[in-house]
């Protein structure tokens, strides 16, 4: 098998060849699923030796993972540009594990006001109950502004770029400089930027992924990952995952591995489709503006262009202020090719009204009208445009 860090190979080539025996090996192309709970040892000394390596890719017990988990760990670390990754059962578990790993009673956490809703619920609920204080900050804060927000007991600066529903692009390098100067760790939900944003290059310490989305790619898997770039952070994150009993089904890991084989072509095609649809939507009179970082009209497009190598299929549409939330719902209901459901990153297009779901306590996002979130799938963009056109045509003039 090619060296996991052989960057001379292109992304699509690495996704095709890593995590399997190799092109010249005898046997099936795809590795098998390894399921198991009990691990047997030839003698007591072997078992004691394995226990000393419990955070490494050795067989100790089923919850510590097996060959299928290890292959997926290596693939995610490769994509994220890190050294190690731990696989957990859901994207929300991937948010929880590092937060609880680095924070304890009396600590302070900074979290962007645009954060994923369940992450906010975790901070306001379980973390608050543990005596951890969270302050929500303007996601557009600059380096100086972040320095002013950090307290002596701030241990974690959490980031998510672009922000959930409102798609603000954060200045991650500037935020990271401020955080590191104060001794705080930078955690990032990098799901939107999977592959296209290299977190450790830009100062992130821990990168969080909902593998449910692009990695699996077919809307039939729940998984998350937490990637790091050094041994110290690995021991902290892996230790927390182990103590919290976090485990991912090997069958789901196998499905995710299969999804990663086609990730490069899906990412590329869905990104292209999203831009075709978004540019058309910008011409519609019913639309006030697009929340798509790859469009020059996006307020933080310059930061996006500086830090991201490509775009994603998820973006927002803000309708004119003369429309209400009920009108946004009517548009979504009228769509024939877009499913109505949570999640994204699969091959199918999705639409959700988002304005009622937006919670802000630090700064009003001031969208200007009701918003709809669109995920663009692998359908022909012309068909999606025709579907959107007939739905928008129903709005009152």
Structure description:
The chain has a seven-stranded mixed beta sheet, with helices on both faces. It has a four-stranded antiparallel beta sheet with strand order 8-9-11-10. Mean pLDDT is 95; it is low at 1-5. Helix 4 crosses helix 8 (231-243) and helix 10 packs parallel to helix 13. Helices cover 36% and strands 14% of the residues. The longest helix is centred in the C-terminal third of the chain and has 19 residues, at 263-281. The chain is α/β, with parallel strands linked by helices. It is globular and about 80 Å long.
List the defining traits of the structure above.
397 residues, alpha/beta, 13 helices, disordered N terminus, PyrdxlP-dep_Trfase_major
Quick gist of this model?
This protein is 36% helix and 14% strand. The chain is an alpha/beta fold and 397 residues long.
Q: Rg, please?
A: 22 Å
Mean pLDDT rating? 95
Distance between the termini: 60 Å
Helical segment count:
13
Protein name: Cystathionine beta-lyase
Catalytic activity: L,L-cystathionine + H2O = L-homocysteine + pyruvate + NH4(+)
EC number: 4.4.1.8
Enzyme class: lyase
Write the layout of secondary structure elements.
Layout: H1 11-17, H2 44-51, H3 67-80, E1 84-88, H4 91-102, E2 108-112, H5 117-129, E3 133-137, H6 143-149, E4 154-160, H7 172-181, E5 185-189, E6 206-209, E7 224-228, H8 231-243, H9 250-261, H10 263-281, E8 287-291, H11 301-307, E9 314-319, H12 325-334, E10 350-353, E11 371-375, H13 381-392
Parallel strand pairs: 2-3, 2-4, 4-5, 5-6
Antiparallel strand pairs: 1-7, 6-7, 8-9, 9-11, 10-11
Helix pairs in contact: 3-9, 4-5, 4-8, 6-7, 10-13, 12-13
């Amino acid at each position: 098998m090619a060296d996991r860090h052989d960057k001379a190979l292109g992304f699509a080539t690495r996704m095709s060849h890593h995590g399997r025996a190799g092109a010249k090996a005898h046997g099936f192309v795809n590795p098998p699923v390894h399921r198991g709970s009990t691990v047997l040892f030839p003698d007591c000394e072997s078992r004691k030796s394995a226990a000393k390596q419990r955070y490494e890719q050795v067989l100790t017990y089923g919850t510590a993972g097996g060959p299928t988990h290890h292959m997926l760990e290596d693939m995610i670390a490769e994509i994220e540009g890190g050294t190690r990754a731990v696989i957990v059962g859901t994207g929300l578990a991937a948010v929880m594990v590092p937060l609880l790993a680095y924070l304890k009673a009396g600590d302070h956490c900074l979290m962007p006001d645009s954060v994923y809703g369940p992450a906010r619920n975790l901070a306001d609920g379980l973390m608050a109950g543990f005596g951890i204080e969270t302050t929500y900050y303007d996601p557009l804060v600059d380096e100086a502004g972040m320095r002013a927000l950090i307290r002596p007991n701030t241990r974690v600066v959490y980031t998510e770029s672009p922000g959930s529903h409102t798609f603000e692009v954060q200045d991650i390098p500037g935020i990271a400089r401020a955080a590191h100067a104060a001794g705080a760790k930078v955690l990032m939900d990098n799901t939107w930027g999977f592959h296209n944003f290299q977190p450790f290059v830009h100062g992130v310490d821990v990168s969080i992924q909902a593998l449910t989305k692009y990695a699996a790619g077919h809307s039939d898997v729940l998984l998350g990952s937490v990637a790091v770039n050094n041994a110290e952070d690995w021991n902290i994150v892996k230790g927390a995952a182990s103590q919290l009993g976090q485990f991912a089904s090997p069958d789901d890991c196998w499905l995710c591995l299969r999804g990663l084989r086609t990730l490069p072509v899906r990412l590329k095609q869905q990104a292209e489709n999203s831009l075709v649809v978004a540019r058309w939507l910008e011409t519609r009179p019913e639309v006030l503006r697009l929340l798509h970082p790859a469009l020059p009209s996006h307020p933080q497009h310059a930061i996006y262009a500086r830090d991201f190598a490509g775009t994603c299929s998820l973006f927002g549409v803000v309708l004119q202020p003369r429309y209400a939330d009920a009108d946004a719902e009517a548009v979504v209901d009228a769509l024939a090719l877009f499913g109505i459901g949570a999640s994204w990153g699969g091959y199918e297009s999705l639409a959700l009204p988002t304005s009622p779901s937006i919670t802000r306590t630090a700064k009003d996002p001031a969208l200007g009208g009701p918003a709809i979130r669109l995920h663009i799938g692998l359908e022909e963009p012309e068909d999606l445009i025709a579907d959107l056109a007939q739905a928008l045509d129903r709005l009152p003039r």
